[in-house]
Amino acid sequence: MAGSTWGTLLTMTTWGESHGKGLGVVVDGCPAGLPLCEEDIQKYLDRRKPGQSRFATRRREGDEAEILSGVFEGRTTGTPISILVRNMDQRSRDYSEIREIYRPGHADYTFDAKYGFRDYRGGGRSSGRETIGRVAAGAIGAKLLESLGVTVTAYTRSIGPVEISMDRFDPEQRFANDLCMPDALAAEEAGRYLEELMEGQDSAGGVAECVIDGLPPGVGEPVFEKLDARLAHAVMSIGAVKGVEIGDGFRAASSTGSANNDRFVTGPGGAVAKAENHGGGTLGGISDGSRVTVRAAFKPTPSISRPQRTVNRRGEEVETVIKGRHDPVIVPRAIVVLETMTAFTAADMVLISMSSRLDRIQKFFT
Amino acid sequence: MAGSTWGTLLTMTTWGESHGKGLGVVVDGCPAGLPLCEEDIQKYLDRRKPGQSRFATRRREGDEAEILSGVFEGRTTGTPISILVRNMDQRSRDYSEIREIYRPGHADYTFDAKYGFRDYRGGGRSSGRETIGRVAAGAIGAKLLESLGVTVTAYTRSIGPVEISMDRFDPEQRFANDLCMPDALAAEEAGRYLEELMEGQDSAGGVAECVIDGLPPGVGEPVFEKLDARLAHAVMSIGAVKGVEIGDGFRAASSTGSANNDRFVTGPGGAVAKAENHGGGTLGGISDGSRVTVRAAFKPTPSISRPQRTVNRRGEEVETVIKGRHDPVIVPRAIVVLETMTAFTAADMVLISMSSRLDRIQKFFT
Amino acid sequence: MAGSTWGTLLTMTTWGESHGKGLGVVVDGCPAGLPLCEEDIQKYLDRRKPGQSRFATRRREGDEAEILSGVFEGRTTGTPISILVRNMDQRSRDYSEIREIYRPGHADYTFDAKYGFRDYRGGGRSSGRETIGRVAAGAIGAKLLESLGVTVTAYTRSIGPVEISMDRFDPEQRFANDLCMPDALAAEEAGRYLEELMEGQDSAGGVAECVIDGLPPGVGEPVFEKLDARLAHAVMSIGAVKGVEIGDGFRAASSTGSANNDRFVTGPGGAVAKAENHGGGTLGGISDGSRVTVRAAFKPTPSISRPQRTVNRRGEEVETVIKGRHDPVIVPRAIVVLETMTAFTAADMVLISMSSRLDRIQKFFT
Amino acid sequence: MAGSTWGTLLTMTTWGESHGKGLGVVVDGCPAGLPLCEEDIQKYLDRRKPGQSRFATRRREGDEAEILSGVFEGRTTGTPISILVRNMDQRSRDYSEIREIYRPGHADYTFDAKYGFRDYRGGGRSSGRETIGRVAAGAIGAKLLESLGVTVTAYTRSIGPVEISMDRFDPEQRFANDLCMPDALAAEEAGRYLEELMEGQDSAGGVAECVIDGLPPGVGEPVFEKLDARLAHAVMSIGAVKGVEIGDGFRAASSTGSANNDRFVTGPGGAVAKAENHGGGTLGGISDGSRVTVRAAFKPTPSISRPQRTVNRRGEEVETVIKGRHDPVIVPRAIVVLETMTAFTAADMVLISMSSRLDRIQKFFT
Lengths: 366, 366, 366, 366
Fold this sequence. Notes:
The structure is a homotetramer.
Chain A: E1 5-6, E2 11-16, E3 22-28, H1 38-48, E4 65-67, E5 71-72, E6 75-76, E7 81-86, H2 96-100, H3 108-115, H4 131-146, E8 151-159, E9 162-163, H5 173-176, H6 184-199, E10 206-213, H7 227-236, E11 241-246, H8 250-253, H9 257-260, E12 264-266, E13 272-274, E14 282-283, E15 286-287, E16 292-298, E17 308-311, E18 317-320, H10 331-352, H11 358-364
Antiparallel strand pairs in A: 1-2, 2-3, 3-7, 4-7, 5-6, 8-9, 8-10, 10-16, 11-16, 12-13, 14-15, 17-18
């Protein structure tokens, strides 16, 4: 089945494998008139690039985005925007070992079970490079939201057992440290934690958080297309994500009604506002005008240098060592993926929300 | 937007409000030839009924399902199955207060913001009664899965701070206590916890868990229609759910690669199996043949008898007391909703998975 | 697969068989605030009822619509509108013959081939009664369009070889004669033609036409969701339709560019208008502000009283006579189906068109 | 709205403008294991190329397809297949005139009305070059069908008033003459007709026909996703198509039931067969095992060299002459578009049809 398209009015269709000719995305349904150039996309792609960091692989990826359609004289035309990123690193390697075995924690076995064979070069479609298309598309979603006064921001909340302190929250730190942690102290501590793991040829997981500010109330569709349900879908579709929370999430489960209910209060200009935000910006799956908060749990990088037990394609038990240098933690490079998937999903739902009231539709057409 | 339809090949379209004439669902795309009668649906609906329990409202709901179409001579025909549940409890009440104020933790305000007005009788479409359609549809999904050797089972994992012990796990207990907890001791303790809260006019949250057994490997579609992404969407769309986990979920975020990776081993008959199941039955979003585990965090019942601060429709701050008897916790009655939504979603994805390999398609048509 | 849902933002999901308990539809995505009552739907349903006419079956069908949800205090709430029509005529009949044979021109064989068995009572899901759901839903689509200044009108264009004359076009005649022909003379002639056929135990086909007036320019989405492509889909999905035209349709194929191109002219108030309308209101699949014209070719009623050659379920050739009284022509009762399917489809596309321009979206949200 | 994606399980998402950097398509949901190379696609693209013919523009288009993803070791992997065709002919031209006026019969005005501005270079997204993506995708659909024993064949049925004779039908002629007419005499006559028109700076329309052979019975989903409804959608979405017929189409409207009903007979091996095929291979929207016939009416090429009256962007009436050389008829180059859209649509519906019967599904999974 066609599982590579996401969205209803605003859609992205991603394609590409880690070691094929390239990766890309077609964004369809973007309203006409949005100023857009390659730099708008590149700055998001650059954030997911591996780099100089101690905690990211040294593989050199150019990942330069080329816009092939849908933009004319600097603005979107309303027709599909095709974005292409050529793979630079296609040199033939020796995949003879990875080809025969199923790496633990990877999709090697399930792709084989599903398709009868697989592209064994570096994970193929299940590689982290698949997110290039999402990020490129999400950059457009983010820009569209910005033009409507909505901003989306993601950062690392925790790495392994090390969590940021909300008291020390410093947005500048998001880009100041390798780990995208908006808390310098936590970043330092997490860095030490990662170095220990790397020595032990091991890896860490972590939690990323994303907030949407400025979203008008009324976005999200009951019953199955609730804003939080769509966000959960979008976020859980990111590789390595194993949990999603809205607002207080699992903490709400051990709270009480009197503590968890957000009180409504009279806001500026007599508007309805809330005194708290345990709910994370939605009520009944519809945005309530307060900040929307989404959280994602990422599992530890499955590629570790330690010898591991597994089986080969014939089902025989073997020991394997995954060669190459691996990121000790996925979260820092996944921040921009979470941010752009959230932005894209919210942008789609903002457009969808326009048709909910007859009086506004009548006004629109007159 | 039409947000009341769920699924791709197998769909449910639910409808109805808490105090309207009735609620129901249209299930479309169910394969022809499945034995089906009203009792198959009723037994699931009965599980979500409020009842004799100390921990559920005493309102009498008949909730009898009538199959209006799609079944002939005891078997599904392949055409839409329409199921109707008439509301019994439609007597006119005094809604004058609830009509003017926005209850904290409810969707009153967001529905008003979205639609310009709302059905203020008992929550309308955002009421828990909305799940009747889901459960009726999911009962068919569960039966379809059973006919393919797949079973789906949900239960309460925790209420407030009280969690079941996996050592004491007793499946019989699921139906033996009011709280659907498969651990008699935990159920007792949780009961005491709830009674305390009820005395204090407060409510509790909790966590529900659902497992799928027997799912063949290869179910789930990369990239956006991963099995876990679809499950997250389905589960987060259930009212009051604020978090979703697959497998170890958020615990994976503080684990390490060496501990979190599931080792592949040679299983019975030389098949590929796993020694652990931290991943919760999926790899790369595709089922790996092991048990699939989904977890949902439910917030505390927002309706509590305590006076609460809020605003009215004119934005003025007021104090309100929500009258009537309320469930002190949502989880026990939501268990069957989680189970049926999971079953339905998995059933759809099983059908979808049939078109992934040309060799099997060729065999199918010859 | 779930083939009973139509639309994107505004959807209908129909269900029901000719001899089951009832038929109905769930309309989802209707904007909130539209005044709606059962009479709005009933007046359309009454137009498809068989009746006193010489040219329609005498079977008594009450076909009374009950709105079960989605309307509160006389207005739509934005949530699903469920409409139920109970079947009155469920008395057990002797289907022993029809059960075993495949009626020529009917879907008996193809349903059996697809589903392995079928509901043989009067055609089941493939009966003309299936259109009840469409008409009820389309009535809502038509009312929504009306509230935006758009009207949709269908009528009979030809029956067998007898076509209306555009010179004698008289809209009043649509409801004045049994055949919905807006030309009294043609109706008379067509009546004589049908009586001849009825004497010979035969039936006629015909062409229906539908026009949309007041549709703003800009409705329809390139490339696959063109307004005319969606209309063609909607119209071809009506039972017995074998051809669809937009504007001049097949006549355009034998025309020339100089004759077929519609000249743009300066319209009232300096607006862009057209001097002709061969195109039928669309250019590049997008409405151009002129009248949209759709035409549908209906095959002759396949049920005729003459003995016919066919095969039974065992593949043996047999002769069959289809008992009962049959409409000698489908078109007059299908007029309201064409009109409502057109209205519903256009209404959905009007909502969809709201997200095409950023400047208008920005204005909408401020 | 995202209108550039077509299909359910097997989808194509096309993109690109006539004078942008390139055009292409992403095909998603293609089953794994289908042998595929660029030549498979190129041979279809070559059929839509303008060329040496007297009746096609001389513009040189290389139109070479590059497969960027989804194929590994010569076979499809089950993941998205991205195909890119770079535009060669991007030299800057003088568009000053076309930029300001609305060409009659083109989508210039409607794009402006919809999007607020347009890509005025050669039609942008509404250009005939848009079909490159469809054809490339449809080539894959055709190959998939072939692997299941289904073939799809299109040809010119008429040009202007000149129609082929079925008595002289010669499949070899499809590729032997410039007009794709399977009747040498008709091709000659049509050639003369076109030359006359060209002298008069005018253009012609025509009818194309497409047949599907070998389609198993049971393909097509009641009610809205009938095989013929989907085909009508697909075909009407092709630029310049104004009418679609299945089987006898509009001729059925003037026929009688006794003449139009196809008799079932005992076929080879006792299978159910038909003595006639007025229905064009479907009954109730489901394939009946006989040849499926689709027909499309194409309007005359709107670009003609004659001076034409129109308006400019300010709504002022002007006279315009469309420069350059234009095809005097669209049909011959559209044949491959009709063929591939039909193939792709049928392939999708074949996959969809696999989930209609429980017994076959049970067998599939065991």
